[in-house]
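Worked Example 4.2. Consider the chain below.
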Amino acid sequence: MLRGLLENGSIIEIVATFVALGLIIAAILSLIYIIVGGISFILSAGNEEKIKKAVNTIRFAIIGLVVAFVAFFAVSFIANLMGIPFELNFSTIIDLMREIFIALS
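Applying the procedure from the previous section yields the following structure tokens:
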């Protein structure tokens, strides 16, 4: 998908794919930071400073994920408002994730 897109795709399709990649990376990093924050919270042993740090890690990971999704929807909304054929839907993101996982394995 990526190779064919870079060889034969329009600039709008390439930008849409990179926006999808950014959203996928933001979701994966957010999940990793939520897990790290949860483990830090469990291992804090009642230390108030460590608990506060772990809660802040989880909080900022969730805020970052929300900001990424809001940015994605804002780009889609502005593109539709300006009449740019920016077609990026959930199935495209799933196909892109599937291709990434196949390439990694």
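The first helix runs from residue 2 to 8. The mean pLDDT is 85. Compare this with Example 4.1 before moving on.
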